[in-house]
Amino acid sequence: MTQKDEKIIHTLRSIGEDVDSLSINDSDEWSNIYAVLEKVKKNLPKNKSAIAEVLGLCLSGLKTIIEKTTNDFLSLVSEISESLIAAEEYIKDKNEGKLPLSESRKMLEKILANDSEKNIEASENAASREKIEKMSLDGAAVALIQLEPEDAQGLIDLKESLEKIAGDGSYPESSCECVTRAAERIMMIIDGAAPTPDATMEEVGELLEQAMNLAADYGREDDKKTIAERNDGSAQEQGDDHKDFSITENKKPKGVTSGNDSSNSDAENKEKVKKVKQAEKRESELQAENDPNQDYMPEDADLELIGEFIAEGSDLIEAAEEALLTLETNPDDTESVGKVFRAFHTIKGTSAFLELTLLAEMGHHAESLLSRVRDGEIRYSGGYADLTLRALDMLKGILVSVEEAVGGSPLLKPVEYDELMKILENPEAAGVSAQEDSINEPRVGDILVAQGKIGREKLEEIVDDCHDEKIGTCIIKSKEVSTTDVGQALRTQKKMKAGKQVVESSVRVGTQRLDRLIDMVGELVIAHSMVAQDDLILDGSNIELQKKVSHTNKIVRELQDISMSMRMVPLKTTFNKMARLVRDISRKVGKKVNFVTEGEDTEIDRNLVDVINDPLVHMVRNAVDHGIETPDVRIKNGKDETGVVKLSAYHSAGSVVVEISDNGKGLDRSVIIAKAKEKNLISNSPDFNDDTLSDK
Predict the structure, then answer these.
(1) C-beta atoms surrounding 31 within 10 Å
(2) Could you say which architecture CATH assigns to the domain 303-430?
(3) In CATH, what class is 569-665?
(4) Which comes out higher in pLDDT, residue 216 or 48?
(5) Crossing angle for the helix pair 27-42 and 3-21, to the nearest 10 degrees
(6) Spatial distance between the Cα atoms of 264 and 260, rounded to a whole number of angstroms
(7) Residue 415 CA, distance from chain mean position
(8) Rounded to a whole number, what is the largest CA-CA distance in the chain?
(9) Rounded to whole angstroms, how far apart are CA atoms 57 and 52?
């Protein structure tokens, strides 16, 4: 990448940040952005014509923002921002950035085309409205002659014109009464209440003619009065003028300064007032900043837009969290870095537009940190990884607070907000670095032990006998584990290293609508069964009808299966939350833990996801906190220093089983018995065996 390319990228990134932070009323700033971007486009090399085309569309979009002719400001700003990012990616890697740039071009063309259509329609409506507003009685009479009773839109326009004429006070009251009655007659034609529309149209014409005659008579009388009044007052006005002139010419009141002195004094006063207001504003902002009870919810908040943003923001944060966990095992995964960066970027831009300053500022600093990771300035590991996840948690918490604020609660600043902002501004000054304790990558043997496919001692024997061959091959040759199990362990290992998944597009649908759909499908099944059991079908006299009913039966049953499955969601999201939990707790207690999942695509009813979440959190926390030993204890006991926590889901006997296991120290029977006796759950006399203890 050339130095010129780096300069272009820097400029585009700067423009993108400005675009996200402005509102539609910042006309001067938008004009400055337009000028800078236009200069970038002109200076692009000839081999970057694809970027020039997209930047041209961005300039067209900026022009509509400056002229305030855009009909979807939020979407346009978001797409301009995404297009600038796509242009950056294209400059860095033409092959990787080709598709995003093409998609951005299509989206911009679509938004601009939609704006153009709406603006044409608005112009036509405005022209029609202007014509209506400027129409006189004469114009209304001419328009009436050109209309037919069937021309509904023309009649509506004429009625509005007459109402405007009757209400603007330009005509005498008697004329306005006739005009009002004419408008009422036209309304009768529009509503279909006129017995004979042609006769009613003639009546409207007569009323307008009568109104014009009354206005003409009134005008002649008014002219006479005006001329008389003007002649009577002329001499008096001239005398007054001479009198006033002599006073101002010969006498100058005391204390009156010259014109220049006065203007200078006014300018000084205005400057003083301006400085006082600025000082008051700074003091007010400082007081508000230090006020823990300040409500950060905008006064004129668009609750509908904020509601949509909450839903979108939750999805973005969930995707970013999954990508960050992928980066834990593969810090060089540029796709995951880009996914997190775009999530922070979108949250920052949209929240700034909605004036949600807490989210916008936090999103901006988090985005800056990810920008450094993306540019290779820092590596996503150690303290930088912890800091990014901490910022993500803060955004998630603020988003929940915004949702509560929509319901009427105040939007308060979180306690650790300012501290985290300070760290994000300069992570290195706060002691943040990329250094971390080395954690071994998940090994095939550890995964097989965690799955109970082989014992630890037997595995160590196989490892000792294995020299130049891969461990997986040695395990298969030992015949202690089947080839299928080893293959599954290898796939699990690969998934833990890469963590990349194909994301399916989805649509957010409320559970009430989903339940309604399922109920309607159920009604359809019942109705179809009634048809299929009808004597007309069962007597077999109409073979073709039977075939059609049978075919419909298959379709209805398939529809029922699909609708029922729509309530089912995979456990993947829940399992991903547990992965984050294991990661945080293991770091907190100083343990090395690999988290293994199986069957994360197993589906359960979406209502049960919330039901099992809390118990799972409790059990996973216990497994890491109490089950897995510290590295030194594990090494002392002949174990690998890295423990394994396994979470699996599978179908069994018509039920979904969610199972959690670990290769830690297991249950401490003596401690459990002592705790049970302390809580009077068991008596002191019997000697419980393990089975009895498990039952308790």
Answers:
(1) 14
(2) Up-down Bundle (1.20)
(3) alpha beta
(4) 48
(5) 160
(6) 6
(7) 25
(8) 127
(9) 9
Strand-pair category, 603-605 with 568-570: antiparallel
Tokens of 23: 């509102």
Percent of the chain that is helix, strand, coil (3-state, to 5): 70, 5, 25
Q: In degrees rounded to 5, what are phi and psi of residue 387?
A: -65, -40
Tokens of 70: 């855009």
Is 82 in contact with 104 (CB distance < 8 Å)? yes
- At 186, list the tokens: 């036209």
Cα–Cα nearest to 346, from 374, 329, 380, 370? 370
586, pLDDT greater than 50? yes
> For 94-153, how does the pLDDT look when each residue is reduced to its tens digit (9 = 90+)?
777 788 888 888 888 888 887 766 555 555 544 444 444 456 777 777 777 777 777 777
Structural domain boundaries in the chain: 3-128, 135-220, 303-430, 444-498, 511-566, 569-665
CATH top-level class of 511-566: mainly alpha
CA end-to-end distance (rounded Å), the chain: 67
Looking at the DSSP bridge assignments, the partners of residue 331 are none
Look at the alpha carbons of 472, 478, 481, 485 in this order and tell me if their dihedral is positive or negative. positive
Tokens 């006020």 label which residue? Answer: 291
> Which has the closest alpha carbon to 488: 453, 531, 436?
453
Q: What sign does the dihedral 536-538-542-548 (CA atoms) show?
A: positive
